[in-house]
Amino acid sequence: MVKRQKNITESQVISELAIKGIQDKKGFDIVCLDLRKIPNAVSDFFVICHGNSTTQVGAIADSVDDEVKKATGLNPWRKEGFAN
Question: Domain containing 33 — which CATH number?
Answer without folding.
Answer: 3.30.460.10
